[in-house]
């Protein structure tokens, strides 16, 4: 064997040893002196040792502050729940007098093949004495039915994953406690399915979220919000899908749809005679519209609140509204005021560094609303890429000064009306830095001088906007010919589409809406024609590197959920063999 060959073999062996060492060290991160316990609401007993064969019974036994005999759940431990209703998960520092400061995760997870219920999750970890600050909860909830919402307040490090979450406590009921029926039932009051306040490092991933006024409500900007909302289905709501007063947020891969104002109360202003009876049927003379009296939604200055039970609300200036039992009426109707709807509302000012990417958003109303109230702080650093938008107002700002800065609007597909609109606000609202590679399959209705676009190109429009650049951009009709089947919601590019290779690579995201790698000649729109996913690229950033190894290890540990992406070798399991596969791919690069 010659000298050069020996050197090559030596290098090869060193690489193999290093690769095994890397795997060992990374997997070692997931090895700790932790325990796994089991809960069984039907067959368990709290005097048991908490093993698979002899599980505990109640949630109280699985809290870290349990003080009875036997083993106790500690940081780093996992508790697996079998079928049953375990009641409310409540961890409130106001009850204990001090906040929790944990250094490692505690995982509460559904056992394989089971769907346990937590009535709701209520976490408050505030330092009421003004000491070192709010606590670190370090709690993971995975795989539960949660029928009465999630509240996360004054804390850091909470994950909610793979759960089916509703807000049934917000359903409108009669005086017997029965859910009021109608074509838009269940009707909902205010509130959110998931609500936070002063919460940091929160992950909401792979959940089904439905039935409330709002899907996720984050109502208070704090210095380091760091919120991840990823791969959720959020739907069947009455007002807003995401209400975001946040800094540093990732909104990725979600399906947002079915926001309907008819699920909530409507207020009527006019001249009232008599007193309406709660729950009685209402009709309006001269129309086929009907409603149900719901005084719980009545606002000051209005004479009636009702729930819609026909295709449309009562008409302003229309005929007399009559109560079927009371005979009470409202005439001279001057205003019918329902709840406004938006899919994503970034409201209040001061938000920054929010990435909205890879989402499918369907809403016949405002989709992304950026709103700075008078006297509010500027919104900045909004990035909007690889989204599929079907709605009437996909992206609009509302401000009385030039105070809404959007860094990127790239590679989105809009199938809708009015991509930019300020609702008639006098001064500029949106300041857009880059707008490239989009498909605007819509009529653009401009309010001139009320938005600024610094750099743009390689966009395809249904109609020509005032900023049109004929050297790089295109007006194309019939624009539906770009897509496979737009009439049935398939906005992938057909093989003859002019959008193929139309994009500018300098502004194209590395991957498309499905996580497939874009090539050197990227397409316009959110879908890349003929693209395939990159093996080993778990986090879908277009590269295979040590970050993907870490993602795979985190999936094995249970601190992240990368779904089928983590099964790199395709054997139906995610384990050390997938880590080795990723390392092998890296070594071959």
Question: Would you give an account of this structure?
Answer:
- There is one protein chain.
- The chain is mostly beta strands.
- It has 4 domains: 12-34 and 533-589, no CATH class; 82-255; 265-337; 344-529, no CATH class.
- Helices cover 10% and strands 35% of the residues.
- The protein has 4 helices and 37 strands.
- The protein has a 29-stranded parallel beta sheet that branches. A 6-stranded antiparallel barrel has the order 18-21-20-19-22-23.
- The longest helix has 27 residues, at 3-29.
- It is globular, with a radius of gyration of 27 Å.
- 45% of the residues are buried.
Secondary structure elements and pairings:
Layout: H1 3-29, E1 36-39, E2 78-81, E3 89-92, H2 93-96, E4 106-110, E5 121-124, E6 135-142, E7 145-146, E8 150-161, E9 164-165, E10 192-205, E11 208-210, E12 214-218, E13 227-230, E14 233-235, E15 240-244, E16 247-252, E17 255-256, E18 266-273, E19 281-284, E20 290-293, E21 304-308, E22 321-323, E23 329-337, E24 342-347, E25 352-357, E26 360-371, E27 379-385, E28 388-398, E29 404-410, E30 413-417, E31 430-436, E32 439-443, E33 451-457, E34 460-461, E35 474-475, E36 483-485, E37 490-493, H3 546-557, H4 576-588
Parallel strand pairs: 1-2, 2-4, 3-5, 4-6, 5-8, 6-8, 7-9, 8-10, 9-11, 10-12, 10-13, 11-14, 12-15, 13-16, 14-17, 15-24, 16-25, 17-26, 24-26, 25-27, 26-28, 27-29, 28-30, 29-31, 30-32, 31-33, 32-34, 34-35
Antiparallel strand pairs: 18-21, 18-23, 19-20, 19-22, 20-21, 22-23, 36-37
């Amino acid at each position: 064997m010659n000298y050069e060959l020996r050197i090559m073999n030596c290098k090869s062996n060193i690489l193999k040893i290093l690769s095994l060492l890397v795997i060992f060290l990374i997997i070692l991160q997931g090895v700790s002196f932790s325990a796994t316990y089991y809960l069984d609401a039907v067959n368990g007993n709290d005097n048991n040792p908490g093993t698979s064969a002899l599980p505990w019974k109640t949630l109280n036994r699985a809290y870290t502050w349990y003080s009875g005999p036997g083993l106790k759940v500690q940081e780093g431990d996992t508790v697996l729940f079998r079928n049953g209703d375990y009641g409310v998960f409540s961890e409130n520092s106001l009850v204990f007098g001090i906040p929790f400061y944990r250094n490692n995760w505690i995982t509460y997870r559904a056992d394989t093949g089971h769907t346990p219920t937590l009535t709701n999750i209520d976490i408050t970890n505030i330092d009421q004495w003004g000491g070192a600050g709010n606590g670190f909860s370090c709690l993971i909830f995975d795989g539960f039915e949660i029928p009465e919402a999630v509240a996360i307040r004054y804390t850091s490090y909470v994950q909610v994953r793979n759960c089916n979450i509703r807000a049934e406590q917000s359903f409108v009921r009669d005086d017997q406690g029965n859910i009021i029926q109608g074509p838009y039932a269940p009707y909902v009051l205010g509130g959110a399915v998931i609500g936070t306040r002063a919460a940091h490092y929160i992950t909401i991933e792979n959940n089904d979220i439905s039935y409330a006024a709002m899907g996720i409500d984050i109502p208070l900007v704090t210095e380091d919000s760091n919120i991840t909302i990823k791969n959720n289905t959020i739907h069947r709501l009455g007002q807003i899908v995401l209400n975001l007063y946040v800094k540093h947020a990732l909104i990725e891969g979600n399906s947002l749809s079915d926001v309907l104002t008819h699920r909530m109360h409507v207020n009527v202003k006019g001249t009232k005679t008599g007193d309406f009876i709660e729950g009685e049927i209402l009709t309006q003379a001269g129309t086929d519209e009907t409603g149900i009296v719901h005084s719980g939604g009545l606002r000051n200055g209005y004479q009636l609140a009702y729930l819609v039970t026909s295709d449309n609300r009562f008409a302003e200036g229309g005929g007399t509204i009559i109560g079927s039992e009371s005979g009470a009426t409202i005439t001279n109707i001057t205003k019918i005021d329902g709840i406004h709807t938006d899919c994503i509302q970034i409201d209040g000012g001061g938000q920054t560094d929010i990435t909205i990417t890879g989402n499918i958003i369907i809403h016949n109303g405002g989709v992304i609303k950026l709103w700075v109230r008078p006297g509010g702080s500027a919104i900045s650093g909004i990035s909007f890429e690889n989204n599929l938008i079907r709605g009437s107002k996909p992206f609009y700002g509302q401000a009385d000064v030039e105070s809404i800065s959007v860094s990127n609007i790239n590679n989105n597909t809009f199938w809708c009306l009015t991509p930019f609109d300020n609702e008639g606000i006098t001064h500029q609202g949106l300041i857009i830095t880059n707008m490239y590679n989009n498909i605007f399959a819509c009529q653009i209705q401009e309010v001139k001088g009320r938005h600024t676009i610094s750099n743009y190109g390689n966009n395809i429009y249904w109609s020509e906007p005032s900023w049109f650049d004929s050297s790089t951009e295109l007006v194309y009709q019939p624009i539906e010919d770009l897509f496979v089947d737009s009439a049935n919601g398939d906005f992938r590019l057909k093989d003859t589409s002019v959008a193929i290779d139309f994009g500018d690579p300098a502004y194209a995201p590395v991957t498309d809406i499905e996580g497939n790698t874009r090539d050197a000649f990227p397409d316009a729109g959110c879908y890349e024609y003929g693209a395939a996913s990159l093996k080993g690229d778990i986090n879908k950033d277009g590269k295979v590197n040590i970050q993907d190894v870490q993602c795979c290890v985190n999936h094995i540990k249970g601190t992240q959920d990368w779904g089928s992406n983590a099964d790199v070798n395709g054997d139906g399991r995610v384990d050390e063999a997938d880590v080795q596969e990723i390392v092998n791919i890296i070594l071959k690069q």
